[in-house]
Design brief:
homodimer, 337 residues, 434 Repressor (Amino-terminal Domain), Rossmann fold, 13 helices, 12 strands, 17% strand, DNA-binding
DNA sequence: TTGTAGGCGTTATCAA
DNA sequence: TTGATAACGCCTACAA
């Protein structure tokens, strides 16, 4: 925090005003002074103080993202990629990204959102892992804070964001499994309050139905969406009297855990049992066997979300406020290739 | 951004000053007024404006972390876990975490660090993936900005941070491989300018030496530390006239890619070839076969780093400024169990 | 084309 | 124990 705008002004025997406007490319500044100011500012390594600018402009040039982090052990490449996308897009517009992690639907989460909003710390917020009934979206709408979300919640609020068509994807996936001859198909979800869990489960059911397969409630289990959780949930499934011959997992890391459990049970994944994921993280392609999955372009989705949000907070017209993406079925060896 | 401190003051017919100090628990405020102020503030949902507070206090209550993101496709669970740790620790102290992603050692990186520092956007910065000669650490020291780093660089600057003893870890690992009968041991590193690459490579060499194995330069390759990169680098190794019978990888995701390549070459990992990682990410335990690795407690390291930094910026005495951690060798099936 | 002055919401100094 | 008042660094009507 070195030179201030006063320093630059003093050095040039100009007023603060002129310096300020020269740097902001106002057109009522003589070209010669403008050049001089810009050169001097650069030479003096002048950078406008963030806090002062924020206070005055009443905006922060910062967008926020709160990680729905369940636990200490949480580590899904999904989030690395998502954050990288948000941050990259923000950088382009000279915005910053504020990040925090907090257990979903907890008291701490509520407090954090409140603090960020009421202290004016961010101009807008990106929400993901939307819940069926999501107080976050309601809260942000009420407070008039710009926000976009990945997956819409069921409430009728106007929605801006990106939605991946999990439902159709799952139907396609189940069809694929049925074609490969897998009939006893289990579903391994996450928290049932999650929109993605709901959508994927519905797609799973619809898929079964159209394949003429009945859905055994015993074959529906839930995990915490970590590989550890997937491992344990799979153990439960495989210990059943009549275990499933395929497991459809809510995401890739869960599936990686499930494959591990299957191997430990002496099953050859892809032949004795089919296992699928959702996300298309890099590691899924290198898993053993490579994982059949519904690929969603996480990085690109994150960039699009950030872009929409940035347009909103900059008052620019947002061309598209709802983007729907169809996940792509990547067939790999974990379902027989 | 609703009620300000003035609103609260007006409502109570008190001065702004008194309200401010009541809320900050100064002891020269009557207990009765303090209670009244606190209650009213809460009722009015008053939250101090961040920008104003920052401007006045000359601190931001924010720490920063710049992800060394190589590319769009980058997605290492290491970073999710690292960020979660930083963020959790920051939350405890009511600090925020500012995150950005930028290619390492690029012009953009330099500009970003400058901007953050000179605009006074953060009180301190966490650095990881230190380079052997790291301008970031020099720059931060010069500018007098508080910072901690994971892995110290070779320069003699005073260092505060956490260091994982990669060198000793690798020696132990090589010893393990040699015991298991693997003799033709390859090393798959990352960028050679990275401190961790240097340390791990040196440990590898030392390990080979003490096991009486000569190091064939052909068996030393580098990747970009992604699973994709690991996959390709392994293909190069396996295409050699005399391919190695073990591959020591710089991190887990690389190793996961390498295992994939090995399987494609018809090799049974753990029997025909030994493969090892470094990190101890959750997925490593669920890889096929489960990956032998040097486990470092990423989440806990991140918390410790953040904690040290927070103490530094709060002016608290830092008990321990250098923490050395010995990674733990987890022997799994990828080296024969 | 440039300068003056007021204020964004807080906190800190000093006097009452 | 409380209250004026002056910054913090910047932006922007408005005046010159």
């Amino acid at each position: 925090m070195h030179s201030t705008i006063r320093d630059v002004a003093r050095r040039l025997h100009l007023s603060i005003t002129t310096v300020s406007r020269a740097l902001d490319n106002y057109d009522d500044v003589a070209e010669s002074t403008r050049k001089l100011v810009v050169a001097t500012a650069r030479e003096m390594a002048y950078v406008p103080n963030r806090a002062a600018r924020q206070l005055r402009r009443r905006r922060t040039d910062t967008i926020g993202y709160i990680l729905p982090a369940d636990s200490a052990g949480f580590a899904d490449p999904f989030f690395s990629e998502f954050i990288a996308g948000l941050s990259d897009e923000a950088s382009v517009c000279h915005f910053d990204l504020l990040v925090s992690a907090v257990p979903p639907d907890s008291k701490a989460e509520k407090e954090l959102y409140k603090r960020w909003v009421q202290a004016g710390k961010v101009d807008g917020i990106i929400v993901n892992r939307s819940r069926l009934s999501d107080w976050r979206l309601r809260f942000l709408a009420e407070q008039g804070v710009a926000h976009v979300s990945m997956e819409r919640s069921l409430s009728r609020l106007s929605f801006a964001g990106v939605e991946v068509d999990s439902f159709s994807g799952m139907i396609e996936l189940i069809e694929h499994l049925a074609e490969r001859g897998f009939k006893r198909i289990a579903y391994m979800g996450g928290l049932p309050i999650l929109k993605i869990d709901h959508d994927r489960f519905c797609g799973y059911q619809a898929g079964l139905e159209s394949a003429g397969i009945v859905c055994d409630p015993k074959w529906v289990v839930h995990s915490d969406m970590t590989s550890e959780g997937g491992y344990h949930a799979a153990e439960t499934l495989l210990a059943l009297a009549v275990p499933p011959t395929a497991i459809v997992c809510i995401n890739d890391v869960t599936a990686i855990g499930a494959m591990h459990a299957a191997r430990e049970h002496g099953l050859m994944v892809g032949r004795d049992i089919g296992i699928t994921g959702f996300d298309g993280i890099a590691d899924a392609a290198h898993a053993s066997p490579p994982l059949t999955t519904l690929d969603q372009p996480i990085y690109s989705i994150a960039r699009q979300l950030a872009n929409m949000l940035l347009n909103m907070v900059s008052g620019k017209a947002v061309e598209k406020t709802k983007i729907k993406i169809r996940p792509k079925l990547l067939i790999r060896a974990s379902t027989g290739g």
